[in-house]
Design a protein that fits this description.
This protein has 4 helices and 21 strands. It is mostly beta strands and 310 residues long. The strands form 5 sheets. A 7-stranded mixed β-barrel has the order 2-16-15-19-18-17-21. This is MOSC domain-containing protein. It comes from Lithocarpus litseifolius. One of its GO terms (molecular function) is catalytic activity.
Amino acid sequence: MAHALSSKPTARISSIFIYPIKSCRGISVSQAPITPTGCRWDRQWLVVNNKGRAYTQRVEPKLALVEVELPNEAFSEGWEPTNSSYMVLKAPGMNVLKVSLSKPRRTTDGVSVWEWSGSALDEGDEVSQWFSNYLGKPSRLVRFNTASETRPVEPGYAPGHSTMFSDMYPYMLLSQGSMDALNKLLREPIPVNRFRPNILVDGCESFAEDLWTEIRINKFIFQGVKLCSRCKVPTINQESGIAGPEPNETLKKFRSDNVLRPTQKQRGKIYFGQNLVWKDSLTEGKGKIIKVGDPIYVLRKVSSADEAAA
């Protein structure tokens, strides 16, 4: 049963992360413009094979080593790229590559990520060659074509909402308390980049975010739609690109569905973090930005993870 809660903030944003190219390295920013499909620039690009299928760290862990830089002003509200605005890419053994932020002219059909397929904007042959050389196989970089394409999230959880190239949902939130609780159990603590959240919050108890079904950040209402189930990616060291058994082995012991959700159908999943959609994204007006330090107000929550959607 969800219920409205106190007017005091439960937590504050401690970090904001944007991942412009899916599965490549993230950028820590002090503020981010928000859109219905996620933070601006988040997972707007995707590396694909010669059939248009997405490459992710699950199959190409070397993507973790690709550093991505955007101009600082890209995270100001209302900023639009000029002809001299670039995304800069760096990777071990590779020359620095500049990708123009102006819209590419070429579209490519048959791009697919998970269950979705559609057309995307192709970033051209020089960029394609760079990724092909780095991964050692034919690759292209494509950009989500917001003018013609929509990628809906699972309608059973958040009907009417959509995302770009993120795995499932436009936003993922995690608490520092949850990271601390996990790291206490690990022989070697791990950084938060293993989990690739957009919003890291601090000041709440560990795993408090499991229960949040509606929160307010600044003046914006976000809906907690589904516990974030975890794949292989958290096991990949983001500094080396090498996978190991942890933290998933430890998470299985205390964050699996049979531990957290004993009365629900068991699917052998582990959960860490909460998927969000921006609920009032159609509101007009300026200032659609979240910032480090913004308070988190919990408006509605469930009483246990067993009751949460997952």
